[in-house]
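DATA SHEET
Item: assembly model
Revision: 1
Owner: S.N.
Input lines:
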Amino acid sequence: MATLQETTEEILDLASAHFKVSRSDLRADDDFFRKLGINSLQALDLLTRIEQHFHIELPDYELQGVSDFRALAERIQSRL
Amino acid sequence: MLDLSRFNSLGEALRAALERWPDEVCLIEVDRDREKARYTYRQFKEAALPLAAAMQGAGLQSGTRAAILMTNQSKWLISAYAVFFAGGVLVPLDYKLTPEEQGKLLAHSKAEFLVTEYHIWRALAQAPGFQESRPRIVLVTEAPPNAELHGARRWEEFRASTEPVFVPRERKDPACIVYSSGTGGRPKGCVLTHENYLEQCVALTSLYPFWPGVTYLSILPTNHAIDFMVGFIGPFTCGAAVVHLRTLRPEFIRDAFTRYKITYMSLVPMILKSLEKGLRQKFDELPKGKRRVLDSLVALNRALTRGRPRPRISRALLPQVHNAFGGGLLALFVGGAFTEPSTLQFFYDLGIPVGNGYGCTEAGTVITVNDFRPFRADSVGKPLPGVTVRINNPDSEGIGEVWTQSKMIMSHYLDDPEMTAETIAGGWLKTGDLGRMDSAGHLQLFGRKKNMIVTEEGKNIYPEDVETYFENLPVKEFCVFAANYLWPARTMLGEKLVLVVHPDSGQPVTQKVLTDIAARNQRLINYKRISGYVPWTQDFPRTASMKIKRNELAEQIRNTLERSAIVAL
C-alpha cells in the first residue's frame, strides 16, 4: 500500500493537472482553497478526480473541515 | 390554495398530510445514482411513529428540545416529524460547523436529545469540553457494526412498539430554535413558533404551489431555512414528493433532474453559477450555425415570456435544454445570498425561472420573492402575501434599512432579551440590510447596515464569531469587521472580513504576527476566513467593562483610513 507521503504526492499531481497550476507551486501543507483559488463546489471536482484515480468512493463530507492537501491525503489514506 | 388555519402546530399539519395521501410517494433518498430509500406517506408515518414512541419512552415531552445534526438525508425528516409528533422543539444544526462550534450551540440550546450521523458524532464526541454538556440521549445513524458509539444509541434500533401519544401544541409555542450565528461569541438562537412556519408555508405555496405528483429536489441540508420550508413543510403539507440527493456533484444533480422529473429545486448562488457556467460552456462548444439558431430561439423565448413564464412554449422552443433539466421543471429557488442579475436573466431567457428571494431566519425565512409577473432580474421581488416591508429612515435616494412585519417574525432570541429588543421593536424586525422599494413594489438591496457578510454559499458570517480564533494574538488589541461595514459600499458583491490590528504601541505589524494571523486564519473553515488586515495605531474605544465599542471604532477607522488601507493576506 502507498505511504501517506506517496498519496499526498499523487493528490498534488492530480490537483496540479486538474486546475492547471504548476506542480512546483504546490506543497503538502498548502491550503488548497486559497492556493487553487477554488470554492467548496470546485473542491468536490477534485474529490471526484481523486476517486477516479484511487478507485474509491468518497462521500462529500470527507471534505468537511479539511483545507490542506496533507489532511486530505490522510482522509484518502484511511480509505485505501 | 393551501389552508392550514385549522392546524395549531407543524405536528398537526404534517400528521393530517400523512393521513390524507397514504399512497403518494413523499420521500426518496438518492446517494449519487443509487436510490437508497423510498417512502410513501404511509411508510413515512410507519417509520417515524415507533421512533416518536421510543423518544417519548426516553422522556421527550411537550417542549423538550431535540437537536438534529445531519447531512441531507431522509432520516432528518423522519426524526423531525417524530419530534413534532411528540410535542418537542426542534433544534436544526449545521453539520458544516466545526465540532467545537456544534458543541457550543448544543450547550446553548440545552437540547436533551440529539440525532446525528456516525461520522459527525465521532468528531463531536471527542471535541474538547463536549462531554460536560452533551445531550442526555444521542441517536446515531449509519454507524458501522462494531463502531465505538461513545454512549450513543443506534437510530435504526431506537424504536418502541407502543403507540406514541400525539402531543398538541399551540400556535404561539416554539417549533424550532434556529441559530443564525453565534458559534464563537453570543449565540443567536431564533425561536420560531408553529404559527411562523404555518403562515410562511401558506404564503409561499400561494406563489409556488405543490400538489401530489410534484417532485422537489433537495440538495441543501434541511437545517437550511429554505430547504426546511420548501423541501419539507411545503411539499409535505401538499402531498408532494421530496428527493434527497446526498451529494452536490453536478453530474449526479443532472442525473436526478431527468430521473425524477424534478419540478422545483432550491439552491444557493454558488451552485446556480456553477450550473450557468456548465451551460455556457456547452453553448460555446456548439458549431457556429447551431449556436446562431440557439441564440435566435433564446431571443424568441425571451420575447414570448416577457410578461410571465410560459413553460410549454419554452420547452417547445428549447427542448434540449429543458430535457436536460428533466422536462418538468417549473422553477428554481435561489436565496441565502446575493445572486447576480445576469445569472437570473440567463436562466429566465432559457425558460427556467429562478425565484430570487430575500429573507433571514429571524423573519421566518422569506420576506420577498420574485413572483415572475413579470420576471425581474434586478430585484429580490415583492413582499410575500401577509408580509409588510418598510424602508426605515430613507435617504434622498429612498435607500434605508429594511424593516418587516408579519406573523412569520420569530418570537425572540433564546435567552437574550437584550438582543431581541435591539432587533424587534414595535413588532418590526430590523433586518440590518439596506434597500429601496420601487414604484412596482419590488425590493432592491444595496448593501448592509450591520457588521456581517454573507457568502455565495449562503452562509452568514459574523465578525464576533471569527474573532475567537484570534484570541491571544500577540498584539495590543484587534477586532474583526466586515469591510463594507467600515467603508459602506452599495453592493452585495465581494463581501469580505478584515482584521484591524493594533500592535504594541509604536510597533509595526511584524512578520511574526502576520505568520500567526495566517496560521490561525487557515484553521478557520474556508468561507469564514479574513481576507486582509488593517494596521491601526490608536487605542480602541472601550466601554467601562472594557468591551470594544465597535461602532465608534468603525467610525474612527472610516474617518481616518481609506479602503485601500486593507493589506491582503
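QC remark: Residues 462-568 of chain B form a domain with the GMP Synthetase; Chain A, domain 3 fold (CATH 3.30.300.30).
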